[in-house]
Amino acid sequence: MGEDADAGETREPTREELLDSTPEAVAMRRARAARAEAAAKVAVPVVAPKDRRATRRRVILGAALGGMGAAQLLSRLAAGSRGP
User: Fold this and answer.
1) What distances in angstroms separate CA 68 from CA 9, 56, 62, 74, one per listed residue?
2) SS3 letters for 1-69?
3) CA-to-CA distance for 74 and 80, rounded, in angstroms?
4) pTM of this prediction?
5) What is the pLDDT of residues 30-69, one digit of tens each?
6) Residues 6+ away with beta carbon under 8 Å from 25
7) Which sign, positive or negative, has the C-alpha torsion 47, 51, 54, 55?
8) By three-state DSSP, how is residue 80 classified?
């Protein structure tokens, strides 16, 4: 008896379902998704693979500058330990 009554009835959409399917609501969801996608693209820049030569140059330059800085620091320490 309950099965026959349920099979013939159609369910009416709720108020929330009706409001969610309005053109304005659909447009707002699309705009929100487009803004989120654009923000995600800006937040994660595309990283190109680095050139091995450029990396090697940076390592060599860093080592050279670091060595010069260490030499300067050691010379200052040595000059300070001599005293007047």
Assistant:
1) 87, 18, 10, 10
2) CHHHHHHHCCCCCCHHHHHHCCHHHHHHHHHHHHHHHHHHHHHCCCCCCCCHHHHHHHHHHHHHHHHHH
3) 10
4) 0.38
5) 999 999 999 988 877 666 667 888 889 999 999 999 999 9
6) 19
7) positive
8) helix
